[in-house]
Amino acid sequence: MLSQPILQTTDSGLYCAAGDFYVDPRRPVDRAVTSHAHTDHARWGCRRYLAAAPSEHLLRMRMNENAEFQFLPYGETITIGGVKISFHPAGHMLGSAQIRLEHQGQVAVVTGDYKLETDPTCQTWQPVKCHLLVTESTFGLPVYRWSPPETIAADINQWWKESRDQDKCCVLYGYAVGKSQRLIASLDPSIGPIYCHGAVQKGNDAYRRSGVQLPETIYVGDIAGKHDWRGAMVVAVPSAHGSPWMKKFGRVSTAMASGWMAVRGARRRRSVDRGFILSDHVDWPSLMTAVEACAPQTTWVTHGYSAVVARYLNEQGRDAIAIDNRSRGEDEEDTTAEIPEATS
Amino acid sequence: MIRFAELYHALDSTTKTNDKIAAMKDYFTDASPADAAWAVHFLSGKKLKQPVPRKLLRRWAADEAGIPSWLFDESYHAVGDLAEAMSLVVPQGESTDDRSLTSWIEDRLMPLREMNEDHQRQAVIDLWRQTPALTRLVVMKLITGGFRVGVSKRLVTRSVALASGIAPEVVAHRLMGNWEPTAEFFLRLTDPDAQDTIVSQPYPFCLAHPLDPDAGPKPLGDIDQYVAEWKWDGIRGQVIRRSGQTFIWSRGEDLMENRWPEIEAASELLPDGTVLDGEILACLPDGEVLSFGELQRRIGRKTVGKKLLTEVPVVFHAFDLLEHGGRDVRELPFSQRREQLQNLLCDITHPNLRITELIPATKWQDWQEIRQTSRERNSEGLMLKRKDAVYDVGRVRGTWWKWKVAPYTIDAVLIYAQKGHGKRASLFTDYTFALWDGEALVPFAKAYSGLDDAEIRKVDHYVRRNTKEKFGPVRSVTPTLVMELAFEGLQKSKRHKSGIATRFPRILRWRHDKNPKDANSLDELLELLPE
Ligand SMILES: [Zn+2]
Ligand SMILES: [Zn+2]
């Protein structure tokens, strides 16, 4: 065990007493150190935010503009109350970071959400050695094993081609910010035009302002009157599925891209035509690889199958505990928290 | 095998009937007769005899994945299906064994049964290492017997008919009864010139449709076009007398051998080339029909002892004639079939083989009134049949109607919930309900159906937020939700904590307007018990 942990768990989330700040707080606090721009991590209503530089446009888009922001490039260090803070790529989405804290020779790393696969829209995860690792576990069960992203991208483009040849319009669902841009970046624009739901298009703009190259996309709302949607790809938020907004596209083939699609029951419950298993979180093998690479003395597990992962790590001879008793994997498997804007 | 796995995938990923039929038709067109026979076998709901115990499969899957068994079980619970859990947890295989479906089953899966545990284990592990995920899922479903992919036997029949050009009625008939999934079988199934004379083969059953209880029988038109019979709660069956042998089939297409010796004895009096449709009922010599609960004492017994034979005698209540003098008479109008049936049975006087009673009436009102007395006769209501109708095997509406008496209803409190299976594996869909006994809530019925998807989701949400305790997959929840349950029958039971067993309980509606304390008591349920 660590003598004096840098972090402690509180009702408002992970708290660093030495620096008097919270990491990804659950409630509005004075000072938040933020791993990435998803709403379950970047909590609205804090007074000050500190985050990785590439997340600037996304965070400003989503947070109250009166808040005070500070952005730090990956790898640079800032000291608050004697605690050295730095951000390291988490590979989850643009600007997502693992947060490294160092105080009196002790190092803690909070992963935020992360994945190990490469993603054209953000920097790839790098292991950071630490004494205390706080890891997410959204997909912390051995049933979750991702295929290489190139394979999934090829499947998606193949589906698009086949639907186009049947005169259908493709509607692909992914979370507005992060997943959607990753999807768009892997689409083959030679197949047809790419359209976006309003929330997705806003995310695209923020990505482009941040310097990420994306194929050309057209905001669906900019198309007036009758339009031929055959052969098009529409990227939309999952809440649009089955809504009146969908009617205009005529004959469609629908698909959802999410790690949850690995399980048949979840796939059927979505009632989409196709489920692509594409996640921005670590799968079971990656989670084990990451723990191995970071070589912590203690692991705190949160955000998913915490109890399962902690028990397994303990049996592997590691010191691990689950720091949330809520099982997110079970109770919030739609992760609606990551769908910020309503359907427009 | 990959082709069959693709068929499974195609069927699994669509809810559209036409897409399913098209996928099956393509398969039956391309596949070898032997593969097609096996496909028909599985798609119409038949299974392999469980070749490997599930407990062992779970253990080996954990070993092969290099994880402790508790972790495999956690995964299994999250997935909700053993075959799927195994196919996800065990890492992908390297090489691929793409032998035919038939060879997979006959050379790899069926021999598993004969092996000792060590050999079985090695064979299963080899199988995992030689299958990509999709094939493995299907193979494991064949092994665990959980091959359900949302197609009915009727859809399979239509697909075979489309692929072969044989009329669906003929295919349906040839698919009845016992058959072995062999190339010869499939060739016969799809042979335009084959003679349909297998001595034990039953005909497909004609099914009745429920009459809308609010509208009543008036929309059916002229009463002169109909006859009425009592609808009894027994076992639907077909008695076949051919070549000096008797075969009794249930609607579930089980050949019931040695179960109903008194009916078999009576059937010996039938002339060769006779097939009767009717109901097996528990019935005293004076004609009084006993409850289904009594009949149940004889179900599931392979052989019947003397004591039970005298306590629960059974009678075959014949209500239709399908084959007469060796001729298929299903195309004749009901009135003619009935007449021939009467002529046939009036020569035979046997207490265990009777013709059903037709209830006379001159106006709908007469049947309406006599229907009110159903319960005291242990009957479920009336059956109305059109006099001019042929014996239908498709689900054509309008020839047979069941006009049941209203079900029993009671308001009960939801106290336990459990996750569903298959499609609903991730939702809490199976509920246990309780009634008041003084200050205590006593569980008395389980119900799975009756709510719509949105309601199921709400209950699921409620269960997750209001779990008191977990017992394995079952959760006890704060008793708040009140639902109105309907059921068809009631009987005393020592096996049930409540002392009473309900038949076909289902949820009628969610009573948002009621508090748990407004729910009914056990005493009120007991009052519904027939004398
Ligand atoms: Zn996230
Ligand atoms: Zn998250």
Automatic annotation (TrEMBL), chain A:
Segments for region (Disordered): 323-344
Q: What is this protein called?
A: Uncharacterized protein
Q: Which GO terms describe its molecular function?
A: RNA endonuclease activity
Q: Which sequence ranges are marked TM in the entry?
A: none
Q: Which SUPFAM superfamilies match?
A: Metallo-hydrolase/oxidoreductase
The record, for Gene3D superfamilies, names: Ribonuclease Z/Hydroxyacylglutathione hydrolase-like (3.60.15.10)
TrEMBL record, chain B:
Q: SUPFAM superfamilies, from UniProt?
A: ATP-dependent DNA ligase DNA-binding domain, DNA ligase/mRNA capping enzyme, catalytic domain, Nucleic acid-binding proteins
Name the lineage: Bacteria, Pseudomonadati, Planctomycetota, Planctomycetia, Pirellulales
Q: Is Ubl conjugation set as a keyword in this record? A: no
From the record, give the transmembrane residue ranges.
none
**Taxonomic source organism:** Stieleria marina
Keyword Magnesium: yes or no?
Answer: yes
Q: Which UniProt keywords apply?
A: ATP-binding, Cell cycle, Cell division, DNA damage, DNA recombination, DNA repair, DNA replication, Ligase, Magnesium, Metal-binding, Nucleotide-binding
User: Which top class of enzyme applies to this chain?
Assistant: ligase
Q: What is this protein called?
A: DNA ligase (ATP)
